[in-house]
Amino acid sequence: MPDARMIEFRSVSKTYPDGTVAVADFSLVVPRGQTTVLVGSSGSGKTTLLRMVNRMVSPTSGEVLVDGQDVAGVDPVRLRRRIGYVMQESGLMPHRLVIDNIATVPRLNRVPKASAHARALELMELVGLDPAMARRYPSQLSGGQQQRVGVARALAADPDLLLMDEPFGAVDPIVRAELQAELLRLQRELRKTILFITHDISEALLLGEQLVILRTGGEIAQVGAPLEIVADPADDFVAGFVGLTGERRLVVRRVDGVDIVVDGSGRPLGQVAARG
Fold first, then answer.
1. Which residue, among 117, 111, 127, has the nearest Cα to 96 in the 3D structure?
2. How many CB atoms neighbour CB 255 within 10 A?
């Protein structure tokens, strides 16, 4: 039976040559088959922590384990080829067709071209892209379509682990909501281990099964399921971060016999459904 721990950070720190402490002392277990979201403002070390997993950043001290193995002892190229990675800007190769972008890692792993392309077409449908777009270049796609290609590429080698670094931060709010819904659907189907980075608490509460709220320097303010954190924030910092002192503080008002949910500014958000 596989270990329930997919990633484990053991007292990791990162100090850059100029003396900047990005992460002081961070320990966390990322459970297998769940979406763990690291959320914090700029300077909280969240991207530094994510990039430690695929050795794009080396910790100053401590260990990062994937499947029980310290990544410091794994060849970085081999490591990255078995971890899906989606970044804010899709990172697609502009001179290569969509189908070839998606097939990149399988081809590097010596999968025959025909098989890699067949897999790419399957993944395009999985992420909600018309396979007819396979022969286009990234510049011929919208920002949201490019991000879907990026997700398909990350899934192409069927990795157990996906790293997602603010993947929806560069698209407009409508497209962002569509991509979030698509990720939730994919996760229900695939049950990958996802480490997701965002500065947006609404996105974190929507996508995360385990939520990690960070202070400056990678200090953990609270870890838990979104419902647990909203119900019982650890301190005023967490309460403020999740919005319980502002607009996210909701109340129910009865208007003409109907229960209406309003936010901290008094704006109506919807009706309370009658229990059937």
1. 117
2. 10
Q: What's the token pair of residue 272?
A: 């309370």
Q: Taking the mean position of all CA atoms in its chain, how far away is CA 4?
A: 19
d(CA 200, CA 176): 12
Query: Domains plus CATH for the chain?
Result: 5-248 (3.40.50.300), 249-276 (no CATH)
Distances (CA, A) of 73 to 58, 150, 246, 267: 12, 28, 46, 54
Strand partners, 65: 8, 70
Residue in this structure with the two tokens 């796609």, named with its chain if needed = 141
How many Cβ atoms sit within 10 Å of the Cβ of residue 134?
Answer: 19
pLDDT tens across 235-251, in order?
Answer: 999 988 888 766 667 77
Q: Read off the pTM.
A: 0.89
Return the bridge partners of 31, or none. 5
Say which residues have a Cβ less than 8 Å from residue 241's Cβ, sequence separation at least 6: 39, 201, 213, 221
Tokens coding 259 = 């229960």
Per-residue model confidence as pLDDT tens digits over 30-63:
999 999 999 998 889 999 999 999 999 999 999 9
Half-sphere exposure of residue 101: CA atoms within 13 angstroms, side-chain side: 26
